Amino acid sequence: MTYNCANLVEETYKRLPKNIFDKIIIVDDGSKDNIREITEKLKIPFFTHQHLGYGGNLKYGLQKSIEMGGDYMVEIHGDGQFGPEYITPGVEKIKQGYDFIMGSRFTDIRQPLKDKMSLARYLANICLSFFDRLILGVPLTEFHTGFRIYSRKLVTTLNFRNTSDDYLFSFEIIAQARFCNLKISEIPVRADYSKVHTSISIRKAIVYSFQTFYVLFKYVLARLGFKIKLFRCIL
């Protein structure tokens, strides 16, 4: 299936609760669609850089937000899969003193299937999150979600230098936050799988799954006192 990502971005932007943001920006890593035209039309600050991957683009966006004075940063994928209506309760939660808010689709274990998540993704998420919860000791119902809110403290405390530029970064940052004793919590969200979306492919998801176990292995070593580059907090 083909789609125009820029049009999805415009639809997502129109649904954002703009009153709670000081600034909304678009960060693009060299896409070939007409995203620049859309940002000019909507008068949204637009930043682009070389293509690195999901993690590289997110790290660039987080650092750019810090440079612009952001106290907290909300990550919203441009495909509109995660509804912007969850931003307000998420921001209210992070203002309670949390450093990292995750949007969980699994607070109601049956809801993802009702929202048309594939059975393979559903079972894989439950399995991976079980081991993540066990080893990291964080009582989250989901660890592999695209809805997140980051605090300034989190971005300035974690060391992104040795993290992945691909999808694995989304899990590495959780493990890093836990290692640096930052406060992590979650809010319930829902994702719409009935419409066009940009979820990671099955092939990449399988590779990602094995990579997360390696991150957990390194986390355990770091907790035992071994010097692991991934787990170095900025004091």
Provide a brief overview of the structure:
With 235 residues, the protein is of the alpha/beta class. It is built from 9 helices and 6 strands. The strands form 2 sheets. Strands 3-5-4-6 form a 4-stranded mixed beta sheet, with helices on both faces. A two-stranded parallel sheet has the order 1-2.
What's the gyration radius in Å? Answer: 17 Å
CATH class: Alpha Beta
Q: How many helices?
A: 9
Number of domains: 1
What strand line-up does the widest sheet have?
3-5-4-6
Question: Quick check: average pLDDT?
Answer: 90
Percent strand equals 5-15%
User: Strand pairing plus helix content: what structural class?
Assistant: alpha/beta
Dominant shape: globular
Task: Give the ordered list of helices and strands.
Answer: HEHEHEHEHHEHHEH
Helix content: 40-55%
Quick one: how many beta strands?
A: 6
The low-confidence runs, each spanning 5 or more residues with pLDDT under 50, are none
Q: What is the CATH topology classification name? A: Spore Coat Polysaccharide Biosynthesis Protein SpsA, Chain A
List the helices and strands and how they pair.
Elements: H1 5-14, E1 26-28, H2 35-42, E2 46-48, H3 54-67, E3 72-75, H4 87-94, E4 100-104, H5 111-114, H6 119-136, E5 148-151, H7 152-157, H8 169-179, E6 184-188, H9 202-223
Parallel strand pairs: 1-2, 4-6
Antiparallel strand pairs: 3-5, 4-5
Helix pairs in contact: 1-2, 6-9, 8-9
